Amino acid sequence: MDTSIAGWLVIAVALAAANLPFFNDKLFAVVGARWQRKPLFIRLLEMTALYLVVGALGFALEANIGTRFPQTWEFYAISACLFVVLGFPGFIVRYLRKPHG
């Protein structure tokens, strides 16, 4: 796989994964739960788990392309902030948009 394609694939998966907790009320979009509306802290825990899944996918693609580069705490801080920013549209739709009618 080309480096550019792998990079765009990780970005696309991160965009979908960051918004997934906000666009449904099931846990990880699969498991039905006993609540009618999923609480915010569950959504944030779900985002954290999905961040780790996307990170594992990125590491796997990087290892498949060639040698993995060692990362320091700055990489994880920036990528976590980027993941939160990618999830912002879902947050807006879920919590800040006024319902019609």
From TrEMBL:
Claim: Transmembrane is one of the keywords in the record: yes
Keywords of the record: Membrane, Transmembrane, Transmembrane helix
Entry-linked InterPro entries: UCP019883 (IPR016768)
Pfam short name (any one): DUF2818
Transmembrane residue ranges: 6-23, 44-63, 75-96
Protein name stated in the entry: DUF2818 family protein
